[in-house]
Amino acid sequence: xxxxxxxxxxxxxxxxxxxxMRVPGRIYSSQSLLExxxxxxxxxxxxxxxxxxxxxxxxxxxxxxxxxxxxxIGGVAAFRT
Length: 81
Fold this sequence. Notes:
It catalyses: a 3'-end 3'-phospho-ribonucleotide-RNA + a 5'-end dephospho-ribonucleoside-RNA + GTP = a ribonucleotidyl-ribonucleotide-RNA + GMP + diphosphate. The chain has helices at residues 31-34, 39-49; strands at 6-9, 12-15, 25-28, 55-66, 73-79. By secondary structure, it is α+β, with helices and mostly antiparallel strands. The chain has one domain (2-79). The chain has a five-stranded mixed β-sheet with strand order 1-2-3-4-5.
């Protein structure tokens, strides 16, 4: 998954919308943090959250991102009510 990230500005990466994703992913991280083991799983969870109904703008991940149970720890998403 890391190979799909597109740098947008310093410490901001975008995971382009593909497949069932309704919005792109936005990850706030340094390059060195992206190299940590398990980061691919956390990035996949960002993509999974982006498929949820009602999500708006981005499926985001803050610098403390790591794999969680369904939703990545450090993940942020807004939904229409």
